[in-house]
Specification:
This protein is α/β, with parallel strands linked by helices and 651 residues long.
């Protein structure tokens, strides 16, 4: 556990890239500040005399050798490395290993090896493998496909956030497995060959494909090939099989059999993204029909139904034919991956959830509907891919809504004002829309009602709306305008949030301290029930809403930041929108992490539009660690909480 917390500490510092106090890190890890200091010492010892974690008056931050320390944490000799070596020995020895000889080879006692075997049993859930023990012999029983899934699980355990790391994969398969010199060219040529045939490749998914190819190459080299199914596969499948067989023999020196070709081709095809939407007219109609021909009718019906429900539930503009067909293609691939039990990791999951909580929640709603209609089990990484589809659609829909209006003030001199407007449109056209140009040296400043005023002369009064620029737009001018636009957008969002929150909070729905919540992430349900009871007492929700909130939590954790969880039910059935707040000091376990603030949100049918405002902006406030610590430390009662929250919002 200590090493895991050291790695978690290092991961937090690397991800944030800024100073963090010992108290903040302690809250995130559920330990004391004194423990943080000891973890920092241990992490730095991994790379001595280098510096993995810097210390200073502002706390700690990732040092120049942080990356080396991350890798050092998984080198040989660690319990994780020993576990993986033990699993490899079991997989490579069908007749079983001698426990005492293996303990000697790993330089541990037989009691330690018995404990490691117990950990191996813990890894076997859902793998169709069993660990048998007879006297001094231990052996794994199960199919070759199940054994490969176990190797895949170990490899993912080695890789941070699901990103592909060949060195981590070699630690799982053994240092004698195929190296970067072979796999670099293999992957490059595979993507190129697929691209030549008109397929756009999802690089995030292809990382998993390369991992499975590495596992297959390693197992085939040991004489452990998959048996072929003999099933007809179609022209595309056969073509990919030929490509993989050719590249594996040329780059990896491995001849794949029919079973491995079929298996790997299926994995490749389930990660191929359909071509982007064409321009218009008949081309668009042709593309739609081509996509529809590749989608099973059952999948298309399910996706169409769930997307229409999500569009109505969240008031989001996603019920478009192109979006439905693209998502249907993705879901069909997902269905095939589910049959192969070859889930696709997504290194963007954490950032998508923290940055776009509303979009992620729409994806959870869609995922739940697809699970009910198609029986597809979905994890956070797969939900994140759906969120990427949703986000792409919404980005197209709301880009115009985010534009701020601007007026240019540039006293006329030849065509100077025209050149300036052209420069502004070219450099800032995606952020602002120029709605007027004033060429008088004494314009009616009070009559200018645009969001921003970009002026080449000094305005008579100061204000955040006014941005001084040069007649010939410079890079510094562009940065100042973008900064002013960003401040204006954020100010408006937070002003709306303050107005909404003051309506939804109640002194009777505030709880500080959860002393009965122990080190068990399953106790998130007890926190939800505690907070939900305050809203039930007010007649806002009923017991069914609380149970549906717990069910939503089981689908995907609502810990959208390192400090905040926002549990809520699918379905806006509250009598009015209300928020129950829980403050935990110290932090409490929630999902895979820990949180200090829990905001149980009950949304009503009449407040649908408030969902996006409250949900995304509330999460934004609690994404800043300093703000969280200020609120948690000073919010001893409801009045203190509301005062600190308003102070943070007002900046």
């Amino acid at each position: 556990m200590t090493r895991a917390r050291q790695d978690r500490l290092l991961s937090l510092l690397v991800r944030d890239g800024d100073w963090s106090t010992a108290a903040t890190l302690a809250d995130a890890l559920g330990v004391t500040p004194r423990s943080i200091r000891s973890y920092v010492t241990a992490v730095n010892a991994r790379v001595a005399p280098g510096i993995a974690v810097e210390s200073g008056p502002h706390g700690y931050r990732a040092g120049p050798d942080a990356g080396t320390a991350v890798r050092a944490g998984t080198e040989s000799g660690t319990p994780r490395d020993r576990l993986h070596r033990l699993v490899r020995a079991l997989l490579e020895t069908p007749d079983g290993i001698d426990v005492f000889e293996t303990a000697d080879a790993l330089h541990v006692s037989s009691a330690t090896l018995d404990a490691d075997l117990a950990r191996v049993r813990g890894l076997l859930g859902g793998t169709d493998l069993t660990l048998e023990r007879s006297a001094s012999t231990a052996r794994l029983r199960g199919t070759e496909a199940a054994q490969r899934r176990l190797l895949s699980r170990l490899a993912h355990d080695e890789m941070d956030a699901g990103s592909f790391d060949l060195q981590a994969l070699r630690r799982t398969l053994g240092e004698e497995s195929v190296g970067q010199n072979a796999f670099g060219p293999f992957k490059t040529e595979l993507v190129s060959r697929l691209g030549e045939r008109g397929w756009f490749v999802n690089e995030l998914g292809m990382a998993d494909v390369v991992m499975h190819i590495a596992i297959a190459a390693d197992r085939v080299a040991q004489g452990r090939a998959l048996e072929g199914t003999g099933a007809a596969s179609g022209d595309s499948h056969a073509e990919v099989e030929r490509i993989l067989a050719e590249l594996a023999e040329r780059h990896l020196g491995v001849r794949l059999g029919a079973g491995d070709q079929q298996h790997l081709a299926t994995l490749v095809l389930t990660r191929i993204v359909a071509p982007g939407a064409p321009g218009s007219g008949s081309d668009l109609d042709t593309a739609r029909e081509g996509a529809r021909d590749r989608v099973e009718p059952e999948v298309e019906r399910a996706v169409r139904s769930v997307v229409q429900q999500a569009a109505a539930e969240f008031l989001v503009d996603i019920a478009h034919e192109d979006f439905i067909l693209r998502l249907a293609l993705h879901v069909q691939n997902l269905r095939l991956r589910a049959r192969e039990q070859a889930w696709s990791r997504n290194p963007l999951t954490r950032s998508l959830k923290a940055t776009y909580p509303m979009i992620f929640d729409v994806a959870v709603f869609i995922a739940n509907g697809l699970h009910e209609q198609l029986g597809i089990p979905l994890m956070d990484d797969e939900i994140a891919y759906i969120a990427m589809h949703v986000g792409g659609r919404l980005e197209r829909s709301r880009r115009a809504d985010q534009l701020l209006t601007a007026t240019i003030v540039c006293p006329g001199y030849y065509e100077l004002h025209e050149l300036l407007r052209s420069s502004v449109d070219r450099s800032l056209g995606q952020a602002i829309e120029v709605v007027g140009v004033e060429t008088r040296v004494d314009p009616d400043w009070a009559a200018i009602d645009s969001d921003l005023v970009l002026t080449t002369i000094d305005p008579p009064m100061p204000g955040d709306r006014f941005v001084r620029i040069q007649p010939f737009l410079t890079d510094a001018d562009v940065e100042r305008v973008q900064a002013a636009a960003g401040r204006l957008r954020r100010g408006r969002r937070l002003a709306r949030l303050r107005t909404e929150l003051e309506r939804y909070f109640s002194p009777d729905a505030f709880v500080r301290g959860f002393a009965d919540v122990h080190e068990d992430a399953g106790n998130a349900a007890s926190v939800i029930r505690r907070l939900g009871a305050t809203l039930v007492a007010q007649g806002v929700i009923d017991e069914d809403y609380i149970e549906r909130t717990i069910q939503r939590e089981e689908l995907s954790s609502t810990a959208f930041t390192d400090a905040l969880a926002v549990p809520h039910a699918i379905g806006m059935t509250a009598t009015r929108t209300a928020i129950a707040i829980g403050i935990a000091d110290p932090s409490i376990p929630w999902g895979d992490g820990r949180v200090q603030v829990v905001a149980l949100v009950a949304f009503s049918e009449t407040d649908r539009e408030a969902f996006q405002t409250v949900f995304e902006q509330f999460v934004e406030v609690f994404s800043e660690r300093d703000s969280v610590q200020r609120i948690v430390r000073r919010a001893v009662d409801f009045g203190g909480f509301l005062d600190e929250l308003v102070a943070v919002i007002d900046g």
